[in-house]
User: Fold these one by one.
Assistant:
Number 1:
Amino acid sequence: VKIRVNGEMCQGHAACHAHGGDLYPLDEFGYSSLDVAEVPAGMEELARRGAAACPEMAISIEE
Ligand code: SF4
């Protein structure tokens, strides 16, 4: 499972980090600093929660 963040859609709400924790690192302005990342085994549910929390629908989960 992978997380992919569309940086052009990200508006810096930081909701991904609030709901998905360290799977969703932020830059110093509160925007996602993620492009693509492999989700560690067992953390898929957290990854999905973080993605679902994004109000800009900027995050996709690739199975
Ligand atoms: S929740 Fe969405 S808009 Fe907000 S920082 Fe994360 S990716 Fe960007």
Note: Residues 5, 10-16, 31-32, 54, 56, 58-59 surround iron/sulfur cluster (CB under 6 Å).
Number 2:
Amino acid sequence: VVLFGASGHLARNKVLPALFHIFRDASVPDSFFVLGFGRTPLSDTAFCGQIRTALGAEAGSDAAREFLARCGYCTGSYHDPASFKELGSRLAQMHSRWATGGRTLFHLAVPPDLFGPIATNLGKAGLASAPKSAPFRRLMVEKPFGRDLASAKRLNAELLRHFRDEDIFRIDHYLGKNTVQNILVFRFANAVFEPVWNRRYIDHVQLSFSETEGVEFRPGFFDSTGLIRDVLQNHMLQLLCLVAMEPPDSFDPERIRDRKFQLLRSLRIRDPAADILRGRYSAGSLDGHALQPYLEEPGVRPDSTAETWFAAKVYSDNPRWRGVPFFLRGGKRLDRREASISVVFKRPSYCMLCRSDESPAPNTLSFLIQPEQAVSLSFQAKVPGSKMCFAPLKMEFDYDRAFGAHPRTDYETLLLDGMNGDQSLFWRKDGVEAAWRLLESSLALWDSLPADSRHSALLTYPAGSIGPGEMDAFIRKEGRDWI
Ligand SMILES: NC(=O)c1ccc[n+]([C@@H]2O[C@H](COP(=O)([O-])OP(=O)(O)OC[C@H]3O[C@@H](n4cnc5c(N)ncnc54)[C@H](OP(=O)(O)O)[C@@H]3O)[C@@H](O)[C@H]2O)c1
């Protein structure tokens, strides 16, 4: 594995610990090494010191010693072809030392504007996609893939000049989560759900993403991106795909990605101005700690119009979902960290137990993705006693309790899939572009507004709250309520 941006936040917190864990668990063979690359001048020893810090309490183990013996670092510039020549020589030594047969996974844990230059320089140095019969050379890139349709197309074209699409692994780390993969098993391996998984029985679907964090780690990146580009365009649309796509003919990665692409192509935002709300947090507090407003966060431009919250309403034109709204909302600096999907069924059309003016709460199937990984189904049950009264209850399945062992982390899953060449959990070129196409009108409209109008259109919410008050009216005008 060659890790670009090896000194960065993602490398330190996610990628290096995940590589160590899959090595420790013998999920990768002994013929394995990690070569970091970056501008920061580091010796192999200094790089290993950084990895030890990243591994924390695990750094003293025998497995860690063996892992660290396989780690090296190459200092260079992402834009300088000479650095890639040096990388090539170092790589050849490592391949020979660790008898890997030359199989290479390049992981790009760097800011997105470097994806193109790195792919190009790998190509120039003869390190890009190998012929099919040769040991693989694969490229893993982090989201975001572009910032709109035009830039995504440019990026795809740039990467594809040097790597075949089957060798490009576009990471959406949400897809590495067990509960996310479980959505497919739930839908397609259980006979009870598929027959009711359509507009006849489902009233609407809600997807929610909330974080308590602000923009501590990457303020510059977030401020130039905003939450719609950072979360809605990728994580949330991928979740929507899994909930709403048609059953694939098989679990072959291409068949799954075909179905996702078809679903993405069928999605519509009917009114690009009114069907997406944007918000930004003001001062507030959480757990007794005062929180500053977004515009006063270090690294944020004082005149920024980046949104830290959104709510959106999306429809699919396909026969299964026509007329069913999908409500998506996400926010930073909210009162909790949670990601969930709720599939809300229609209320019973007739209930002999109800007065004429009431009906029982609808059944809701919820997938909790983080922090806990769980699934629950709400239903009505009779309350004990002589009267025929009923109340909502939940049937719950919790991943940790059910299976005991901790599932693999998202990065462990995705890195192993990359090494195994399994593309099921990665974005394909056409899917990325379809996701940008869905948001194109709304993003273009927003970007075309004068800064003053954007400032006044941003709803505000206190940091540490549940979001802007206006979100209730947004969904109530459709006759629904947020879960
Ligand atoms: N952090 C996360 O949790 C996370 C989550 C999802 C996706 N991502 C994506 O993963 C990639 C890496 O994220 P990250 O948080 O690790 O980024 P980062 O810490 O800001 O940058 C990673 C490394 O890239 C190098 N770099 C080159 N040019 C740079 C520049 N102009 N500004 C800053 N660093 C530069 C730096 O290493 P050298 O100076 O040594 O070259 C830096 O250590 C990004 O594409 C990001 O969008 C990150």
Note: The pocket of NAP is lined by residues 5, 7-11, 38-40, 109-112, 114, 142-143, 173, 218 (CB under 6 Å).
